[in-house]
Write a structure and sequence with these properties.
The chain is mainly α. The chain folds into 2 domains: 84 residues, no CATH class; 47 residues, no CATH class. Helix content is 73%, strand content 0%. The radius of gyration is 44 Å and the shape is flat. The chain starts with a helix and ends in a 10-residue tail after the last helix.
């Protein structure tokens, strides 16, 4: 194959790769556009729902205001003329009573404000765990590349012994922290 034929073949291969990449990019852009359109539709639906809820809220507020006005008008119509004077007099007496109660409460509270309560923290006495149970023996050194089967076997036995010792310590700590309950007749 001549160098110009090879060059043309090479350019055609690059052109095919670029066309495939452009096609993938177009597909990805189309998928993104579809996803954006879906999200836009959801946002529009949510905006419509929010608008509807705000309208319902405004209607309820109007109904509540109208109901309050109706109750107030009805109450004013039913009250006899002499009741207004009695109510106003009672309100004046009630206001004076509230002021008196407030002054007495402030004086009582002011008398208690100087002393701080004394709080002493007492450490809880927990079970004593010996330091020897809080550590595990170190794992044995791994044999090197020139180790024999006997070295590997000894390593495995030492590793098992270290693990068994650690499990034994953990069991002892567990027995101290969470003692098993014995039946009522045994002790």
């Amino acid at each position: 194959m001549s160098s110009s034929a090879w060059y043309v073949h090479h350019l055609q291969a690059e052109n095919a790769e670029l066309s495939a990449a452009a096609s993938e990019a177009t597909d990805a852009a189309d998928a993104d556009a579809k996803q954006f359109a879906d999200l836009q539709a959801k946002a529009d639906a949510m905006a419509a729902t929010i608008s509807q809820l705000e309208t319902e809220k405004a209607v309820r507020a109007t109904k509540i205001t109208m109901a309050r006005d109706t109750v107030a008008k009805t109450a004013r119509r039913r009250r006899p003329a002499g009741a207004c004077v009695a109510i106003r007099a009672g309100c004046a007496q009630g206001a004076a009573m509230k002021r008196l109660i407030t002054i007495v409460a402030v004086l009582l509270i002011a008398g208690c404000g100087d002393q701080q309560p004394i709080v002493k923290l007492v450490p809880a006495a927990g079970p004593q765990i010996p330091d020897s149970l809080l550590t595990c023996p170190a794992s044995p050194d791994v044999p090197g590349d020139d180790a024999t089967q006997a070295d590997v076997g000894k390593y495995m036995l030492d590793l098992y012994a270290a693990g068994a010792d650690c499990r034994s310590n953990l069991g002892a700590v567990k027995a101290i922290l969470k003692p098993t309950k014995t039946p009522a007749g045994e002790r």
